[in-house]
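User: For my dataset I need records formatted as: sequence, then structure tokens, nothing else. Please produce one.
Assistant:
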Amino acid sequence: MNHDEATEAIHAALREVAPDVDPAAVPPDAELREAFELDSLDFLRVVELLTGRTGVRIDEDDYPKLTTISAAAGWLCSAGDT
């Protein structure tokens, strides 16, 4: 998976969980939970959607690596290579 594919998967998951916010309008380094007003259940739903869309297993220990769109895309790219 490349960075663009990972970013699109993240945007799609965020559009589904927080349809009132356009992911493309949010800076890639903005804090996800703050920018999209995600509570813990919303964030868990994003994680589940990302796992389903990418096939990359995301464990709870990995959550700190998913704080921004940019960080999450980078992590998904590297995790998908293993």
